[in-house]
DNA polymerase iota (Acinonyx jubatus), 482 residues
Amino acid sequence: EKLGVEPEEEAGRDEEEDAAKAMDRAEAGEAGCSRDAPVPEEPGGVPWLVPEGGSSSRVIVHVDLDCFYAQVEMISNPELKGKPLGVQQKYLVVTCNYEARKLGVKKLMTVRDAKEKCPQLVLVNGEDLTRYREMSYKVTELLEEFSPVVERLGFDENFVDLTEMVEKRRQQLQSGELSALTVWGHVYNDQYVNLHDILHVRLLIGSQIAAEMREAMYNQLGLTGCAGVASNKLLAKLVSGVFKPNQQTVLLPESSQVLIQSLNHVKEMPGIGYKTTKRLEALGIRSVHDLQTFSSKILEKELGISVAQRIQKLSFGEDNSPVTPSGPPQSFSEEDSFKKCSSEVEAKNKIEELLASLLNRVCQDGRKPHTIRLIIRRYSPENHCSRESRQCPIPSHVIQKLRTGNYDVMTPMVDILMKLFRNMVNVKMPFHLTLLSVCLCNLKALTTAKKGTIDYYLTPSLSTTSHSGKRSFKMKDTHVED
DNA sequence: TGGGGTTAT
DNA sequence: ATAACCC
């Protein structure tokens, strides 16, 4: 109210028809009056009522590291700095630094094409993701210090919901400080900033926090990256890529239509992938505008109501999906691709390698996997993407061995994996595989369950195995095929 | 095309 | 168990 912002200056604001849902998430810990405040009828609400009305407008930052693997490699070996550098997996250059990009190297180029374009290109092997993964989690943890709600996307992107942090800072602004508020980094579309508009003020504070985050990433981890600040994840992600390397951009609500219309094709919209793009093209939908104006009814019949409604909202820049804290990983997997694997022995050797690495990782994590999965890809000239998998519970006596640090946990697990393998592959017939992957998932914290407590009986590894040894053997034999 | 990840059905 | 999505 201090700012005397007029209700009518909300032209072009898109946000959150879903005020009720947003309230449900924002409600915890808010002032007691928040639920009783009059709910604004219009989407987004009256600007000066928004904070008390339960945060229907959010401030989200998307943080995107510059050519992440290449940066990690240059930190590992500073002699690589200043040289065109590519990170290689098999015969692909999966990413490269900006020196290499200037010389024409692109992401996911084959090594042959890249070397042809750029003979001086230095290549390092990046098939072992360990150091990338470790640095990736350091970044997420650093961001979590700003605000605990951090969602990872791959190894090099994070979303942070800054709504609460921004509101705290805004309320602490002294009267003179508001007029001195400035944007950090770029304003998308060079839009005019109105300090009388509370949404502008909040996004500017978001840009300030984004700058602090990037500064901390550089000072503490030596990493550079981009950031985008906007009112939802979709827009934050789109705007973070506008100025590219090591810069940041804030999107003010009035320019969101310009941003999404700047996309040349629906396939550039995050959330619309390969398959959906193909189906949309079959309907004659190519541009964002095509999708905006296409019949909702027909779209729902073609794609299903869920996908249809979600992507059509995306086409208007609307995205009410929350920033979901990622927390520790849900699964650990290791894979290896190759030209050909056609014997069981060969497969077993590869599987043993994959499993050995996984056990190291899972051991460091501390939690215990309760499910194991084997994934294969069969050779086929066309249908390349398709994978098959088999999974089964990990017998509890094996989980126990993980817990006690018993040395031979490999043998029983390899036995299980080979049973899964033979369940998928008829080893009496010729076969040709091009990928093997092992995944440990269904991770559970080791509860300090004591005998006689509820936890004890609800912990499968304790309540099924320790009472009868025979039963645990039976579990192994029958459940492995699952 | 690599070596990972997630959620929905 | 698969299929879609993300990097």
Residues 68, 152-157, 270-276, 307, 373, 386-391 of chain A lie near DNA strand C (CB under 10 Å from a C1'). The two ends of chain A are 62 Å apart (CA to CA). Confidence is low (pLDDT under 50) at residues 1-51, 452-482 of chain A. The first strand of chain A starts at residue 60 and ends at 65.
